[in-house]
Design brief:
The protein has 8 helices and 16 strands. The chain is α+β, with helices and mostly antiparallel strands and 309 residues long.
């Protein structure tokens, strides 16, 4: 196994060493280049320069995330939106300090939100206004998992598990000859240690998995728990009983982006939406009217789920 730091988080990668060498330096080099494209926390990254309205040519990583993000934006009816950066920053969840929130500020920022306000022309980002900014944090991490996984596949590695910041892609089997198993954290207050209190265990057969849940920051009202996800249409946190979303897809870029989109959409909209999408499985944990945890899942989850609380 190799491990390290990237994108403000950690990574853990296990692979059958069919290439007979340590790949940590290679992985770190790829992730470093990835950060220089899409990390908003690195001033010299491409996305940071785009947000500062500097003339910069975008690379393959940037274009892939941008175009994929646009597709999810369209299919999710705008619930997933990479141009939410000004709003996220104002709430203190982005790459700037929190602002003093009021309706006038939110209204002034909403004019810059919408993937229809930005496009790529001749490898450069063209905006409808200088105030438009991009935030790739809800999709780039999943894509970085795919990038490393595809690098492994080019090397002929048939058995691996790539995990970056909790986003996962698996192929083949582990050293014990069984499919890779992933734990889903129980959405309880104070559950800050991943893997300590599990809601479920799933097995991945050549699939990717991403979980989105801000249940560690939920609030309670009349016994019902509500999570906070910023709604790009209103500029305010959405109020919904959906506490955690796990999405299984072929590629991690899809699992990551759709997990975020469903958290913003809320329970009922997400159930309707995921049933219209192909090749996605979902496992939704929510709080019922009595404050008890409940689960809604797609039909295919039964083939993935090993254990459940």
């Amino acid at each position: 196994m190799i491990a390290g730091f990237t994108q403000g988080t950690t990574y853990h990668i296990t692979y059958a060493n069919s290439v007979n060498r340590d790949l940590k330096d290679d992985v770190d080099s790829i992730l470093h280049d990835f950060d220089l494209s899409l990390s908003t926390y690195i001033p010299e990254s491409i996305i940071s320069k785009v947000n500062e309205n500097k003339d910069v040519e975008v690379d393959h990583y940037f274009k892939e995330v941008f175009e994929h993000g646009r597709k999810v934006w369209e299919k999710s009816n705008g619930e997933f939106d990479m141009t939410i950066a000004p709003i996220v920053n104002a709430w203190g969840f982005g790459f700037t300090k929190k602002s003093n929130i009021d309706s006038a500020l939110i209204d002034s920022l909403l004019q810059y939100v919408g993937m229809n306000k930005v496009k790529i022309v001749n490898n450069r980002v063209v905006k409808s206004a200088p105030g438009v900014m991009l935030d790739a944090n809800a999709i780039a991490q999943g894509y970085s998992v795919d990038v490393i996984s595809e690098y492994f596949e080019k090397l002929g590695i048939q058995n691996y598990l790539v995990e970056i910041g909790g986003e996962v892609r698996a192929k083949g089997k582990n050293k014990d000859g069984v499919y890779w198993r992933i734990g889903i954290d129980k959405p309880i207050e104070g559950n800050y240690e991943p893997g300590k209190n599990l809601q479920a265990i799933m097995q991945l057969k050549n699939k990717s998995l991403a979980t989105s849940g801000n249940y560690r920051k939920f609030y309670e009202e009349n016994g019902v728990k509500y999570a906070h996800s910023i709604d790009p249409k209103t500029g305010y946190p959405s109020r919904d009983s959906l506490l955690s979303v796990t999405v299984i897809a072929k590629n991690c870029i899809d699992a990551d982006a759709w997990a975020t989109a469903f958290m913003v959409s809320g329970l009922h909209k997400s159930i309707q939406l995921i049933n219209t999408l192909d090749n996605l499985e979902g496992y939704f944990i929510y709080s019922d009217k009595k404050g008890k945890f409940r689960v809604w899942e797609t039909k295919g989850i039964k083939d993935i789920l090993l254990e459940e609380e």
